[in-house]
Amino acid sequence: SNNILLKAALEKSIINPGEQVVVNGEIVTNPINPSSITINFKVGTETHSLTPTAQTFKGSFGIPTDMAADTYSVLVTASDKYGNSGYITLPLTVRRVATAMDVVVNRKTFKPSEVLDINVDVLDQTGKAMDELVQLQIQDPNKKDIFNSKIFSGQDVNVEFGRFSVPGFYTVVATQPERGLKDEDTVTVEQNLQLSVDYAENTIFIKNQGNIPYNTPVDIVVVDKESPEEKQYVIRREINLNPQEELGLSLAEEVPPGKYD
How far apart are CA 115 and CA 118, in angstroms? Predict the structure, then answer.
């Protein structure tokens, strides 16, 4: 048997997973019939073949989308039915690329003043975590940003919902436009109906400390500490307060003179 001499080169020696590998080659040995030769290409466990129709040939094959980043050898072999053969190896580098993104939140439902913990994972073609810069945006139910900044994947981000945070669905969106990656999740802030009542200088101050309007009648009980029997008075008021709004009631307009608690 004789050696079959080959020349070959890759059109691109550095590629992304899932791309086509293109090999241009030439059978240097002058065969009687080029079609009697079989050309094989092998990378890892991937094998492809062609039958040339001339001394020059061009072959292409795809590599798996989950092929790990590394430098591989493309083995190009030629053989015929007479036992003649030859080979050449070509280096091929597969890049590590971000192929998926995953937004992870610590839970789905929150009360005002609780903390949302977020972690954004960016995964390569083999599912392994990568360190990448991503854009993280959190919007309230009114599409208003409460967080919008670049973060590193794998970084813990803590966002506290304020006492008066709008109740409803909040969207958590992570993007990496240059790689075409995006993932999102939603969390819910619950409604909180809460009033505070304070007393100073003969005035009762009622404040909506919740995150929704307070439109409910309330009964306020005051006690006259100067009366022998500590007489009680009930003041009933229809309260209409938006979050953070406050109402003042003058006792002088509601009950007889006295020392009240």
Answer: 10
